[in-house]
Specification:
The protein is mainly alpha-helical. It has a single domain (22-89), classed as DNA polymerase, domain 1. It is 45% helix and 4% strand. The chain is built from four helices and two strands, in the order H-E-H-H-H-E. The protein has helices at 2-16, 33-39, 45-58, 75-80, and strands at residues 26-27, 85-86. Strands 1-2 form a two-stranded parallel ribbon. Mean pLDDT is 84; it is low at 16-20.
């Protein structure tokens, strides 16, 4: 019975929290909104779409801290995701 309960809990977590498992670093200058929302903590689809819109309107991010210019993305969100954010060949991470 204990084993069955453990399996149920495991599969419940597996299917109800897909964002809980890190997908690795994401290039904020190339990724689509769904990829951004899966890879970045505290960034849902709406904020990820705002990142893509900002990038399309203003060009690539040259610093990770430029993400704070996106509505809904603050310094804390950037700090929480420093190890998940890549800029590609556009600039150093700073």
């Amino acid at each position: 019975m204990k084993r069955l309960t453990s399996l149920i809990v495991f599969f419940s977590l597996l299917f109800t929290a897909p964002g809980a498992f890190a997908t690795g670093p994401v290039n904020v200058n190339e990724a689509d909104a769904q990829s951004l929302s899966r890879a970045l903590t505290g960034v849902g689809l709406t904020r990820a779409e705002a990142i893509v819109a900002h990038r399309e309107q203003h060009g690539p991010f040259t610093s990770v801290h430029q993400l704070t210019r996106v509505p809904g993305i603050g310094p804390r969100t950037v700090e929480q995701n420093l190890d998940r954010i890549e800029l590609g060949s556009h600039a150093p991470r700073d």
